[in-house]
Design a protein that fits this description.
The chain has 347 residues and is α/β, with parallel strands linked by helices. It has 2 domains: 5-114 and 217-340, Periplasmic binding protein-like II (D-Maltodextrin-Binding Protein, domain 2); 119-213, D-Maltodextrin-Binding Protein, domain 2, CATH 3.40.190. It has 15 helices and 12 strands. The strands form 3 sheets. A 5-stranded mixed β-sheet has the order 4-3-5-12-6, with helices on both faces. The protein has a 5-stranded mixed β-sheet with strand order 9-8-10-7-11. A two-stranded antiparallel sheet has the order 1-2. Helix 2 (49-57) packs across helix 9 (233-251) and helix 2 (49-57) crosses helix 10. The longest helix is centred in the C-terminal third of the chain and has 19 residues, at 233-251.
């Protein structure tokens, strides 16, 4: 029987203190009604969206005492945190954008190391980097993760989006970007390798594979409003624990069929071999201990500045709160969760 990271910690720590001394969770979750919480989510955050999909599809939030309602943020909208929607699994750039407009947010975990395994895929007829000059690429929102990764890809090719007159259009989610590329509305995009491989079967080509370059982009982020975190630290920590278990589930050899189905559904992939490719890439970029990296978030912020000057006023250190990850890590709960799912140690 798989033991949850949350219950493992609680068995050794009957009083799980967060912030205020009087705030604690005894975690007899099966004896009380599940807490209902809305969780904002984006499909454009890359492979780490698979972790959320696996967690939700397999009832892992429920094991941690939560009834989670996923609230999908579609198109080019930037997630907005409210009292109704106080927590989200989104791209870190979106959180920084919101912080730049005054939102008081905390970034408590990142499940993606932000090492890029994406590819730049282009329409038929484009075969060299020089042919990208004057062309139109697609992303979700200017300054957000896909946009950042597009800028990084162009830099890797020795191109500059301004000097080389390469526009990066705001299109929407990866599914919308793929449709735009198929329709000829854009000339290329930076997408997950699995999605690019599927597009090559329709005549597109991969102009650049970022995986061998060892470059880092924008990570995902588990983000909570500061007010909700202060009032409900147990809920935020239970969401985190559910996602940690979802990450272990995703890498478990025993859960492979269920994970591949989730990948095919989440990424709209039909080919089994391509889904296997996506799972392999996930295993390479997934952060088993999801500490947010201040250094990588700062680098991300630097690139965002060229599209959104407001993010200059955001103090990354003030947003990051890794105490929840740290407590689960130091208790050994994270390691025990991966062991209980039969996940081998990373090579």
């Amino acid at each position: 029987m798989v033991r949850t990271a949350w219950n493992q910690y609680s068995q050794n720590n009957r009083r799980y203190v967060f912030g205020r001394p009087e705030s604690f969770v005894s975690l007899q979750l099966e004896r009380r009604p599940r807490m209902r919480v809305n969780l904002l989510c984006l499909g454009a955050i890359g492979l780490s969206s698979i972790v959320l999909a696996v967690t939700q599809r397999n009832g892992l939030f429920k094991k941690h005492g939560l009834e989670v309602q996923l609230i999908a943020v579609r198109g080019t909208a930037v997630p907005e945190f409210t009292t109704t929607n106080p927590i989200g699994h989104i791209g870190a750039p979106a959180a920084v954008m919101r912080a730049g407009t005054g939102a008081d947010l905390r970034l408590i975990a990142s499940f993606d190391t932000s090492r890029l395994s994406n590819c730049l895929v282009v329409r038929p007829g484009i075969n060299t980097r020089d042919q990208l000059r004057g062309k139109r690429l697609g992303a979700r929102v200017a300054g957000a993760a896909m946009w950042i990764h597009t800028v990084i890809a162009l830099e890797a090719l020795g191109l500059d989006r301004i000097q080389d007159r390469i526009s990066i259009a705001e299109i929407g989610d990866p599914s919308e970007i793929i449709r735009a590329l198929e329709a000829g509305a854009i000339d290329g995009a930076v997408l997950a390798r699995a999605q690019c491989e599927q597009l090559t079967r329709q005549g597109c080509s991969i102009l650049l594979d970022l995986s061998p370059l060892d470059v880092y982009g924008a990570p995902d982020a588990l983000v909570v409003t500061a007010h909700f975190l202060n009032q409900n630290p147990d809920v935020a920590a239970a969401v985190l624990a559910g996602l940690i278990e979802g990450a272990a589930f995703a890498l478990s050899p025993n859960k492979r069929p269920a994970v591949l189905e989730a990948i095919k559904s989440e990424m709209r992939i039909t080919d089994n071999a391509i889904a296997e490719c996506a799972l392999h890439d996930l295993s390479r970029v997934l952060a088993r201990k999801p500490y947010p990296s201040v250094e990588r978030l700062r680098n991300m912020q630097r690139i965002m500045l060229t599209a959104n000057a407001r993010v200059l006023g955001v103090t990354i250190e003030g947003m990051v709160d890794d105490r929840f990850v740290r407590r689960l890590d130091e208790s050994g709960a994270i390691d025990r969760t991966y062991v209980s799912y039969g996940v081998p140690d990373p090579i």
